[in-house]
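User: I'm writing a tutorial on reading structure tokens. Could you give me a worked example: one chain, its sequence, then its tokens, then a sentence or two explaining what the tokens reveal?
Assistant: Sure. Here is the example chain.
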Amino acid sequence: NQQSNNIFISISIVSLTTMAHILTAVSGSEADIVPITRALISVSDKAGIVELCTYLASKNVELLSTGGTAKKLREAGLTCIDVSDYTGSPECLDGRVKTLHPKVHGGLLGVRGNAQHEKDMEENGIGKIDITILNLYPFEATVAKGAAFEQCIENIDIGGPSMLRSTAKNHAFTTIVTSPDQYDEVKATIEEHGGTTLAMRKRFAARAFSLSASYDSAIASWFTKELGEESPVVTRVYKPEFPLKYGCNPHQKPAGISSLLNANLPFTVLNGTPGYINLLDAANAWLLVKELREATGLAAASSFKHVSPAGAAVAVPLTEVECAAYEVTPEAAAKLTPSALAYLRARNADPMCSFGDYAAVSDIVDEDTALILKKEVSDGIVAPGYSPEALEILKSKKGGKFIVLEAKADFKPDAVEYREVYGMTFCQKRNDVVITKEHMTKNVVTKGGLSALSEDAIRDMIVASICVKYTQSNSVGFAKDGMMVGVGAGQQSRVDCVKLAGRKVTTWYLRQHPKVLGLQFKQGVKRQDRVNARVRYIEGDFTDEERTRWEAQFETVPEPLTTAEKDEFMKKATGVTISSDAFFPFRDSIDHASKVGVSYVAQPGGSVQDPQVTQCCDDYGMVMSFTSVRLFHH
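And here are its predicted structure tokens:
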């Protein structure tokens, strides 16, 4: 809403000193509506300025302007007065001094209705200026282009921030406008009220001061960096974009999403109302599939729950037995588009955990992909775009509440990220390491060396490693045939991660057991109930009450899947890759991984136990690569 779009949050980290003198308030008249009779305009971003000034001129507002802005207005047929003519002082010092003059700042700071101010203004020929429309010199853009030190210094705005602060300070009577996205509100307010309202002037002033703080912080940070010192102040200014129903839990209100001032959000909401955890999932899921796409050249998808992937995959064709396990015919599977194939695999890594997931797809979502999502229980999706047919299918899901986000291809996050926890502000360089084939091939430490790695194994190492990069630590992930088949997240012990994820690998394999594939469900048993029933059949540890309800789903009660049958089937497991977000401190993780068909290992290395772990891999005939990259994620 309009209110939230003009409130800004400024967070500063700075040393404070006691002020020596505090000024008393200056009194004057009070007015809610202030008519606009004279405007001061000086903008670097000229979008919409002609339209706004045309409107002001139609209301008989006198226009004062400088340099390029004045030229732009005159070219549009508008009459404006150069500030230098208004003040009687020409621009000088290569334009460094244009508006630093009592006729400008006196006109902005004079308190209406204050007898002394009115007297001073009359004696000095100072007229009232009711509104200032300005942008600041593009300092950050100049730095981003790699400009020389001297050019960056020249792009430090002096007059702009001075006019901004003068106008904002005197907001009881003057209006400060700092962005084209405020122009429509200015016109609408004047049209409705005959002038600007005090409430609007206060909001605009708050935004202006936040902009000033952010601008000065950027200069201070850059300047200090040039000196090779730590920044004395960090100011981050946030613009609230939209409220959220609540945070992580219903009692955590208020909640909302903000963007950095003068920056965009990474997503556009095309449908539905995303929640706090939805957006955390979307951000991580999108980064995962984006990196998988870049690293493998294949369409990628992920299935997220509670900020960790339940599954992730790239587009690799299905085997016939996989088709049977995933409830898709070989004929239908052969016709799947790469995006649809990737999501089908991602969802079937752990379909029980993927219930109610947040999906991400690296490529444009087509009708095939949308139809797969349509039959699954899912909260939402993020992708770089959607075909018209796919978007209509997804918009109709969940009674129109299915969340559809479109990722912005040109979004570039800041190099440094910040997080506030319990009064502490943490900052770190983003984990922007790009996992590539080179990480898997540069240091193969087991017998056989690089020649023991197939292209498929390297692909699975990449898939598993990028997956654990976006999994809550400690984490390990198992991959096979381009898909995750077991993810172990958030355990304090690494071997517990391996055991947790290994259990999921076993379940994935046993879903392909002939007895599981042969389960005969009654007509009308829902898809997710069939998924859950198969998993419980594999696990087999029913209570009496649970068994009764489970058996009621089948035409004939299935014979148990015995431990001996499971063990015999798992002996065939092979070709699985395990990746760990940090080194294996002991060989116990490798010992356990050997039970679920692991043939390949990717890990950072760096433990004093590396020789023992390497020997363990050799004992089992595994191939292990040291990536030298730790991937903790919290």
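What the tokens reveal: The first strand starts at residue 9 and ends at 13. The CA atoms of residues 318 and 545 lie 37 Å apart.
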